[in-house]
Design brief:
One of its GO terms (biological process) is protein localization to Golgi apparatus. Keywords: Acetylation, Golgi apparatus, GTP-binding, Magnesium, Metal-binding, Nucleotide-binding. The structure is a single chain. The chain is of the alpha/beta class. It has a single domain, classed as P-loop containing nucleotide triphosphate hydrolases (Rossmann fold). It has seven helices and eight strands; from the N terminus they run αβαβββαβαβααβαβ. Strand 3 and strand 4 form a beta hairpin. The longest helix is centred in the C-terminal third of the chain and has 14 residues. The radius of gyration is 17 Å and the shape is globular. The structure holds guanosine-3'-monophosphate-5'-diphosphate (G3D).
Length: 200
């Protein structure tokens, strides 16, 4: 009886909470990405950890998709903030890596940060969504261009779920497709179970 009631309580009043890190160099479009997730299909709350944007270490957005609640953590991409990324790996259920498709000059810098991130053993098996952002800009790098540039890193991706998705955070194009894919991947990844959180 207790099990039945506790199951009912969980079903009615609790969500499965998943933490998804949003990583990438500064200016890649991470902040705009959080804001562009479709508000009609999901409830979203965005907040910053402090009011001084230039000092802000992370921005958090939350979306509810069915019984799953995804918390997005934008950790910031500046050099000094990249050194903090790995502090969050153990808690994360998924990673979204955002690339600025218009910035060919910083592509090798982005690849370096990407490679360091996927080399972390703590992230092994964690689903990875790579977003080739700013596809609205004419002559930007395409997904095949980016795959070619990042091809050395492919073996390090290993067996984890991985998708490279073109998108435009400015208009939301391609963003929901990526998020929906991420939701499916984190829910089916039995190696990183969700936290149970009361619905607020
Ligand atoms: P960050 O959080 O990764 O540092 P931001 O990046 O979300 O702050 O975006 C950096 C700049 O890129 C912003 O321009 C933003 O408007 C722009 N941007 C983000 N996504 C897109 C996109 O899909 N298309 C285009 N054309 N621009 C985008 P500003 O001028 O405000 O610095």
């Amino acid at each position: 009886m207790y099990t039945l009631l506790s199951g009912l309580y969980k079903y009615m009043f609790q969500k499965d909470e998943y933490c998804v890190l949003i990583l990438g160099l500064d200016n890649a479009g991470k902040t705009l990405l959080i804001l562009s997730v479709d508000l009609k299909k999901s409830k979203i709350r965005c907040s910053s950890c402090c009011s001084l944007t230039f000092l802000c270490l992370l921005t958090v957005g939350t979306i509810d998709v069915g019984k799953a609640r995804l918390m997005f953590w934008d950790l910031g991409g500046q050099d000094e903030l990249q050194s903090l990324w790995d502090k969050y790996y153990a808690e994360s259920h998924g990673v979204i890596y955002v690339i600025d498709s218009t910035d060919e000059e910083r592509l090798s810098e982005s690849k370096e940060a990407f490679e360091k991130m996927i080399s972390s053993e703590v992230l092994e098996g964690v689903p990875l969504l790579v977003l080739a952002n700013k596809q609205d800009v004419p002559n930007c790098l395409s997904v095949p261009d980016i795959k070619t540039a990042f091809s050395d890193s492919a073996p390090k991706i290993g067996k984890r779920d991985c998708l490279v998705q073109p998108c435009t955070a400015l208009t939301g194009d391609g963003v929901n497709e990526g998020i929906e894919w991420m939701v499916k991947c984190v829910v089916r990844n039995i190696h990183r179970p969700p936290r149970q959180k009361d619905i607020t």
